[in-house]
Fold this protein.
Amino acid sequence: MTVPGASTASAPSGPPSAETPCSRPPGRPRDTRASHAITEAALRQLADVGYANLSMESVAGEAGVSRATVYRRFRDKADLVTAAIAANGGGDLPDTPSADPKGDLVSYLEEFDERFAESCLEVLGALVGAREEPHALALHRDRVISPRNAYARSLLEEAQRRGELSPQADLELALQMVAGSVFYRRVSGADSSPGWAKRAVHAIWESMGPLSSRRP
Amino acid sequence: MTVPGASTASAPSGPPSAETPCSRPPGRPRDTRASHAITEAALRQLADVGYANLSMESVAGEAGVSRATVYRRFRDKADLVTAAIAANGGGDLPDTPSADPKGDLVSYLEEFDERFAESCLEVLGALVGAREEPHALALHRDRVISPRNAYARSLLEEAQRRGELSPQADLELALQMVAGSVFYRRVSGADSSPGWAKRAVHAIWESMGPLSSRRP
Amino acid sequence: MTVPGASTASAPSGPPSAETPCSRPPGRPRDTRASHAITEAALRQLADVGYANLSMESVAGEAGVSRATVYRRFRDKADLVTAAIAANGGGDLPDTPSADPKGDLVSYLEEFDERFAESCLEVLGALVGAREEPHALALHRDRVISPRNAYARSLLEEAQRRGELSPQADLELALQMVAGSVFYRRVSGADSSPGWAKRAVHAIWESMGPLSSRRP
Amino acid sequence: MTVPGASTASAPSGPPSAETPCSRPPGRPRDTRASHAITEAALRQLADVGYANLSMESVAGEAGVSRATVYRRFRDKADLVTAAIAANGGGDLPDTPSADPKGDLVSYLEEFDERFAESCLEVLGALVGAREEPHALALHRDRVISPRNAYARSLLEEAQRRGELSPQADLELALQMVAGSVFYRRVSGADSSPGWAKRAVHAIWESMGPLSSRRP
DNA sequence: AACTAATCGAGACGGTACGTCCTGTCTTTGA
DNA sequence: TCAAAGACAGGACGTACCGTCTCGATTAGTT
């Protein structure tokens, strides 16, 4: 609120983000270990009991921390979970240009399916459902969805640049279809036959390859 | 819908013993108008305030009914919402074989996007989240997802039969991609450019058409 | 209500009380066996689970009868219990003049302590508590308390007549003290040392005997 | 009553570990005003509408407090009422030895009759009725009955010491008879003729006086 | 033999209270 | 300042009764 250190960060007075050289804010600094413990506990609970059954109390308890300490860092359950996914859940997207866009896309999909799809679905469900507070939804998109979206899209663009996909290919659509198939499997409860990711990506390459629209 | 006996048989009140096809179950029959009012109120609230903010009390109130009357029909909030979507939300899937599978698939996608995608996402999020009670999730899949899934699949099969899709085409994958793209748009917050459904279906036709794998 | 047969009895159209010779009311007569089963079940439950935990449903169930059948006979839980105690619980007060008032009073107290004190206390507690419906309280007093009161009093009067108690003795007070001691033991949780009844009655005889006020 | 720490310690919130006699327990202390308001509201409602019709909600409402705040202090309706009677209902038993045991006993009876008999009867009825949870009954006896019992008994003992009652007098019986008469009047609905308490006590003095058993 | 009128079983209905749980805010003491 | 502990208002949950009601199916006596 009245924090000097600006910070685009999550919620009530995010951590002073280290790189700002200004003199530290007065008073006792926040316990970094607590912060970690909290997000980790949140992730564990999210996986174990699900978003709805995750309670601030139990997260605080599992983190060995008082409830107030959680609320000082995260304004909301939504904020907490969102931030936890973003922070401890995956900061590991390569940003060097890919040498094998198609293969990388496949790997990316598989990893996403395994690590994010489930919790993303429930968190998103909850956030979409919470009318009158779109901030958390926006936050989650910013923190979790967008980066991955951008990464996947960059792979598609690279493929286009290399001529594997037609210059007219609708990459947005491609992205939606291939990423959506991950979600839909969760939605419908279909079990993933091995190689699903490869086949999905292949289908896109087939339909959006350089010759796709020139068939007789 | 307006059938008096043989109700949707959600949770409490098992089916009337099957072998007596006609004789009404003993006791005072349920008030059909109340049943309607309840599911309709549930749907309205689901659309208005979302799954999380929907309360049994307010549904009962809006339906002009006591809370007990709701719980007599639906064991749960999950059960209520699930059944409401299934019942009053859409009993309108054509079951005659399609004359134009591709066009029908497009229309179906558009209708689904408009009428179900949002609430389905939040309901599914909530249900997937509710570990330790998969019954509601299974129910929702049975009541809402599966029928539509089957319908869409039948369109794809018809297309295959007509030779629009290759006999080797992976229809399951096709379904996942095209239906998933609907969800993913909600997930990522992307706004739908007009014609998205047509383009998505077209992409599948492109990649799984009869000649798709014989290209040079 | 619209019953011809008058009947001072309990509640909604009591049984036609047999001795009225008028032609039986039309329609199916009440099942006498059910009536018995109900009051007996009520008594059992009263003893087993107490007044508060006794439910109309469980009484009906134990009696092998539907709930409506209970409510047709008794307007109320209070009415049911009250009537049950009065009916099946004790119609066995001797009305011949006593040959040994003191001894009979002792026996009476012991029997009352054993068979009525407990349930009487809770029923009375509930009925006294139920402001705005004194009918049940009055009923219970009429049906259960008053007859026993009168009996005990008649014993005291007989004792007075025989000269065992002074003509000036305050029999009302005597009754209250000796009967009250039964209740108070339940209230305070004191366990009854054997001979309590004898000692209590003896104390009254001591204090209200023919010579009691003439002591030096 | 107005003691800040060391509360009546009804149910939740165990005593502050006894061995630290002073240091306040951690966390925000309970709102003393709320505590008062609650017990007072409970007493008022107990008097007004009776035990059965007293609801936690209405007590909370009348106390200007949320329901949770009531449940934080009292685990139960029984616990609440019991504690309310014990706390705000009477902390006014003299503990100095009496100079006039007989007169004091009379006054005590009259006060008890007026202030406690009614609610005691219904509360006790309810508690005795609630099998399978004797804790509340025990509590009520500890908090309300026992202290008064002890007081009355001390008066009797003082009288014995002074020679007004015989050394062999059965004080327990005396207590039961004189206190019981208070209850029995409520039970039987008899209205108290003035002087009842004096007459009851007098009867005991008569029968248990120093000469009572030596009469010819 | 049909009609009438009450009973019976079964269960729906409105209403009310219960006790539990969780959220997000607040008020303490102590570090 | 932060941290730990916990009180607080508010509100939903699902359960359990109560007393009333509406059904169809019985079961008598009456016409």
Remarks:
- Residues 23-24, 26-29, 55-57, 67-68, 71, 75-77 of chain C lie near DNA strand F (CB under 10 Å from a C1').
